[in-house]
Design a protein that fits this description.
Distance between the termini: 37 Å
Structural class: alpha/beta
CATH class of the largest domain: Alpha Beta
Number of helices: 9
Order of helices and strands: HEHEHEHHHEHEHHEEE
CATH topology of the largest domain: Rossmann fold
CATH architecture of the largest domain: 3-Layer(aba) Sandwich
Oligomer: single chain
Strand order of the largest sheet: 3-2-1-4-5
């Protein structure tokens, strides 16, 4: 992979990179299509990264279907599929990780999933070093991840452009996720309350209500009506610092994390 990328860069070819954990869906394909339009070469990585899973999380049962993923990548015009093993990425004597400091390390998902973004920042750094992408594509459903990776690029002076692409949703509004396959019919129906709450929040803002406390109260009340949902957090924060804000303004993130049964789902509304 490193040799391939080196030769491509020496030939002045632009490499578009889409990192994934596999079990691809239309959200991933939207990133791949954007990469295909804007680059000479498209690389997709498929790697279920063990260092971003906690001891009680779903690493062993995370959905996998490499054969299906390969077919989807080929159909979408991907040039290279990079599928390293955990042993290649983290050899037995592996010791160095990328740690986060400040608000990025203790807000939102970082608070409820300690160590998660340490694993994300480490694997993304490794993948960037291996693939040397010109442009890297991430979905905005994982908003905190996108914000952290943008900061990672800036702080480490990395030579890649980050593009954050819109959330892709199912026809009923549920944000696409590989984990949606875990949901029972009842849980999936209740999970629609998340996107509904965000939609109603957007209408409240358009109608002039910029009070974060009132919007959070409304979201919580809607989610609490869904039997199988358990709220992890509902937060309204600056999309730059992740600090809580009292009044909605430009570059605000309304972020929700809920458990539908045992499945943790995230969604957000990004106010630009």
């Amino acid at each position: 992979m490193k040799l391939y990328s080196k030769k491509a860069r020496e030939s002045k070819k632009r490499i578009g990179f889409v990192p994934t954990m596999g079990y691809l869906h239309e959200g991933h394909l939207s990133l791949i299509r954007s990469a295909r339009k804007e680059n000479d070469i498209v690389v997709v990585s498929i790697f279920v990264n063990p260092t971003q899973f906690g001891p009680k999380e779903d690493l062993s049962r995370y959905p996998r279907d490499i054969r299906r993923d390969k077919k989807m990548c080929v159909s979408a015009g991907v040039d290279v599929i990079f599928i390293p093993s955990a042993e290649e990425m983290y050899p037995r004597d592996y010791q160095i990780y990328v740690n986060l400091e400040g608000n990025l390390s203790n807000k939102l998902c970082a608070k409820s999933r300690p160590g998660h973004f340490r694993g994300v920042a480490t694997i993304v750094t490794k993948l960037f070093n291996i693939i040397s992408p010109s442009i890297s594509y991430f979905g905005s459903k994982d908003a905190q991840q996108a914000i952290i990776i943008k900061r990672l690029i800036a702080d480490f002076n990395m030579d890649t452009i980050i593009k954050i692409m819109p959330i892709v949703r199912e026809k009923d509004g549920l944000a696409m996720s590989s984990r949606n396959v875990y949901l029972s019919p009842k849980e999936r129906k209740d999970a629609l309350g998340i996107s509904k709450a965000l939609k109603e929040s957007s209408m409240m803002i358009k109608n002039g209500n910029l009070n974060s406390k009132e919007i959070k109260f409304h979201i919580n009340s809607l989610l609490n009506k869904r039997d199988s949902l358990k709220i992890d957090y509902v937060e309204i924060v600056s999309a730059e610092t992740l600090e809580s804000i009292d009044k909605i303004q430009k570059n605000t993130l309304i972020a929700i994390a809920c458990f539908a049964g045992k499945t943790r789902l995230i969604d957000n509304l990004w106010i630009h």
